[in-house]
Every structure is written in C-alpha cells, then in structure tokens.
Amino acid sequence: MAGSTIRRTRFAPSPTGLLHLGHAFAALTAAEQADQQGFLLRIEDIDRERCRPEYEAAIYEDLQWLGLSWPLPVLRQSDRMAAYDTALTQLAPLTYPCRCRRGDIRAALSAPQEGILPSGPDGLIYPGTCRDRAMDDIGADDVIRLDAARAFDALGIDQLQFRDEIVMPGQTQVLSRAQFLDSIGDVILSRRGMGTSYHLAVVIDDAAQDISVVTRGQDLFDSTWIHVLLQKLLRLPTPLYHHHHLIRDTAGKRLAKRDDSRAIRYYREAGATPADIRRMVGL
Ligand code: GLU
C-alpha cells in the first residue's frame, strides 16, 4: 500500500486533443474519490509529436470550468525524463534493445499461426527475436524491452496481484507468470524517440506523487499487470485501483479524442453548464 494516509487520486490526460465527456467523467470521478486536497492533475506529454500546448491549455481551462482544482505546480511528464532514465538504468539487467518494426513482428508471429495475431495491452505479443541482444549493443533507432521471464525470475515470484475497488471489489486480482508471458509478454519500456513509455512513466509518477488510488477507465485494466510488475522491480508500492466504466456514445462506441462533437468545450459554447455535463455522464 502507498505510504499516504489520505486518499490521493489523479487525472492524467495526454494533451493530444480536446477533452470530451469521457474525460469529464474520469476527472470528476477521480476528484470525487479523493480526500480533500487529494486530487492531482498530471499532464502525460511524453509523446512529443502528438502533444500540443494549446491542448494542454484547454485541459486546464475545461477542468477549471467543471469546478475542479488541484495543487500547483502540475507535474508534466516531459519534465521527468531524468527519473525515467534512472529507472531504465536500474532495470537494464532485465532489458534488451529491440530493432523490430511492427511488420517484422507480424511476420514472425504469422509464420507458425494463421489468422488473428496474439496481442495484449502493449500490442502484439513480442516473439522474442531480439531477446538475446545486450544493452550495450543498443542502436539509435531501437526500443528497449523488458524481458518478462527474466523479470519474474529475478523477483522469484510466479504471480502478480492487485486490488480493484470496482472490478470484483473485495477480491484480489491474480495473474500468473505463465499468463503474463502468454497474454502480455516483453513490453516496451522506452519507445523509439521517446526515451520512456506510458507504462514506465505512469508507474514512476504515481509513486512520486504518492497516489494511493489510481482511478482510470477499464480500458487500462489489463495494463495494470505491467504496472504491478514494474512496481515490484522498482520497489515501489502498488496502489489501490479504481477502474471505472467508460462513457460510450449512443451507438455504444467509446468516445475518442477525435470525436470533437463530444468535446466539453463544444457543449459549453452551446450553453451547457457544468451541472449539465455531470448529468450527461451520469454523475
Ligand atoms: N494518459 C492516459 C490517457 O490519457 C491515462 C493514463 C492513466 O490514467 O493511467 O489515456
């Protein structure tokens, strides 16, 4: 459990588009789940190519309009590269550089099996082509992968656990080493041109911000296994999780950032109030 005694949650958007109703629900849920002063905002802007300053400005404005407030300064992941670097160095004995592109991975996977390629929360299950390469052989265009089998061996454990307040509350979620290797595999810790990855950055920052309850959508539920494994490897606490349902459109499709018509600011410009938004997302 996290060291904090107050319930501290966060909303962690990426400034790659305007916030929509799904984000409003996620942010309001996080704030509702926090003790007073316990709601934090974090800007997840490691993908420099897709992030835009105007979207970051819109995040602050839309959330304030919704009535939310948070302590300053806001943590921005682009300022945290040194921390991610330190973690990569720490994990180096369990990682390897990988030069495979998506096409190489697809080709390697489709050789023995026809049909749908196996994939998990980090994309296609990596077939291990580069697994024997050493870190000092890393090339400028390589990604860094975690050797998941070696990670479990180093920890001496054969399963992972966490608790979720929404998904089967009261029960411990369990995933075995074999299930991890089959359904997730060797995940990327440092993406090409990024110097980190969502999984690595989120784990380090949730710990650095002393987050005790990670509230986020159920689309990220399976990613949590990666996060729990990284927490163990980096000796960080595993927080409690609160994977909430997703807000869907009338056709049942989950909202995406490109659905501009669902953006909070369009509703606002059309005269909606924050109370209307709350009602629209069922709060
Ligand atoms: N930055 C992620 C997103 O915008 C959220 C990650 C998280 O809450 O763990 O989907």
Small molecules bound: glutamic acid
Q: Biggest sheet, in brief?
A: 3 strands, parallel
Architecture per CATH nomenclature, i.e. the level-2 architecture: 3-Layer(aba) Sandwich
Proportion of helical residues: 25-40%
Structurally, how many domains make up the residues?
A: 1
What's the pLDDT, averaged over the residues? 94
Q: How many helices in DSSP terms?
A: 10
Organism: Paracoccus amoyensis
Family: Belongs to the class-I aminoacyl-tRNA synthetase family.
EC number: 6.1.1.-
InterPro entries: aa-tRNA-synth_I_CS, Glu/Gln-tRNA-synth, Glu/Gln-tRNA-synth_Ib_cat-dom, GluQ/Sye, PRELI/MSF1_dom, Rossmann-like_a/b/a_fold
Task: Describe the structure concisely for a colleague.
The chain has 283 residues and is of the alpha/beta class. It has helices at residues 21-33, 53-65, 81-91, 102-110, 148-155, 177-183, 198-208, 223-233, 264-269, 274-280, and strands spanning 9-11, 39-43, 75-76, 95-98, 119-120, 123-124, 143-146, 159-163, 172-176, 188-190, 213-217, 240-244.
Could you please describe the fold and organization of this structure?
The chain is of the alpha/beta class and 283 residues long. It has a three-stranded parallel beta sheet with strand order 1-2-3, with helices on one face. It is built from ten helices and twelve strands. The chain has a single domain, classed as Rossmann fold (3-Layer(aba) Sandwich), CATH 3.40.50. It is 34% helix and 16% strand. The structure holds glutamic acid. Glutamic acid binds next to loops.
